[in-house]
Write a structure and sequence with these properties.
Elements (H helix, E strand, L loop, with lengths): L1 E2 L4 E2 L1 H6 L16 H21 L10 H6 L5 E3 L2 E3 L9 H4 L7 H22 L1 H22 L9 H17 L9 H14 L5 H24 L5 H23 L7
Antiparallel strand pairs: 1-2, 3-4
């Protein structure tokens, strides 16, 4: 064995000299392309909302994008009839996750997305990160339709909570008990914030967390621990996403404005 800058190398490895040194972002095995793309999409749509909605949209006013693409089952909004998921606009379950009520709302979610998304993308890769994110987003929309169907809901928070759920399951797969996970205090703080601050979608956060935990288990734990083809966890996750959308449409159609 021959001494090297870090530890010892066998003679064959020392002769090969094929080692590479990465600095900064290059030190990541997987660059956070999906995370950066999602952040760019959220910011671009927010700027588009300002362009079409005027200055009120900067601080979260009800601008046209929120009226037509935020999540709602069916209701009368500001004296005007507003169609929703129950009228066939199921795409609101997806589009609502890219709308935000003001700059602070956007900044908080994008900071969390940068931290959590980068970690999952590094751990599982781009495809797993994208799958977990979008299933969590849809699950958060389903949770919001269950608990607050008549409210106009928007934001990436459901997907963010899903990333936290997925990371908790990833830590478990790595042998870290849930009680020792470094994410547990962060989750507790966010749970207290969700329950204690008026106007926050409890159903969206809870649904997103459950969806992310299930998808994270499928992609980061189940597939790694069992000898199954790579496509199996993705197929199950896709079926789960379709089931969530169907459940959301059924939930929206069962809602009676002014009654539930």
């Amino acid at each position: 064995m021959q001494q090297a800058s870090v530890g010892f190398h066998c003679p064959e490895c020392a002769k090969s000299g094929n080692q590479q040194v990465y600095v900064g972002m290059q030190s990541l095995q997987t660059r956070p392309v999906v995370t950066l793309g999602l952040m760019a999409a959220n910011v671009a749509i927010y700027l588009l909302g300002i362009a079409v909605g005027g200055g009120d949209a900067v601080m979260g006013g009800s601008e046209p994008l929120q009226r037509h693409f935020a999540l709602i089952a069916k209701a009368t909004f500001d004296g005007r009839t507003l169609s929703g998921v129950a009228q066939g606009e199921w795409y609101r379950m997806l589009s609502a996750g890219f709308l935000h009520y003001g700059a602070l709302h956007l900044a908080m979610n994008m900071y969390a997305l940068w931290i959590l998304g980068r970690a999952i993308e590094q751990m599982g890769g781009r495809a797993k990160m994208a799958t977990i994110y979008f299933v969590s987003l849809l699950a958060g929309s389903l949770g919001a339709l269950v608990l607050s169907p008549g409210s106009l809901t928007a934001g990436a928070s459901g997907a963010i909570f899903g990333l936290m759920g997925a990371l908790l399951l990833a830590h478990r797969a790595a042998g870290i008990p849930l009680r020792n996970s470094p994410l547990l205090p962060l989750l507790a703080i966010n749970a207290a914030f969700t329950l204690g601050v008026p106007g926050i979608s409890i159903g969206g956060h809870l649904g997103g967390f459950i969806g992310g935990a299930i998808t994270g288990w499928l992609l980061l734990d189940y597939g790694a621990r069992r000898e199954v083809p790579d496509w199996v966890p993705y197929a199950i996750s896709g079926a789960l996403a379709v089931g969530i959308v169907v459940a959301g449409v059924i939930t929206a159609n069962s809602y009676l404005p002014g009654v539930g």
